[in-house]
Design brief:
The chain is an alpha+beta fold and 81 residues long. The chain has 2 helices and 4 strands.
């Protein structure tokens, strides 16, 4: 690897504001904000959605779609059973 062309890789605290969840991940994101987290100072980034709050990862969206599909199927073919 060439020296001086890669961004700095470091641990960063991300804050999911929709559910007030904090997590530390290695990243090259540039930020001027810092936060004290678990006794250490980290760069700080706020985000609106993460895997902790997104419906796809929590399973809430999928269940709602399945219930709609089952109800539609029963309405359409329920008379034959």
């Amino acid at each position: 690897m060439k020296e001086g062309i890669h961004p700095e890789y470091r641990k960063v605290v991300f804050h999911d504001t929709s559910i007030d969840h904090y997590f530390v991940v290695g990243s090259t994101v540039q930020t001027k904000e810092t936060i004290e987290y678990e006794g250490e100072t980290y760069p700080y980034v706020t985000i609106e959605v993460s895997s902790e709050s997104h419906p796809f990862f929590t399973g809430k969206q999928r269940v709602a779609q399945q219930q709609g599909r089952v109800a539609k199927f029963k309405k359409r073919f329920g008379q034959f059973s």
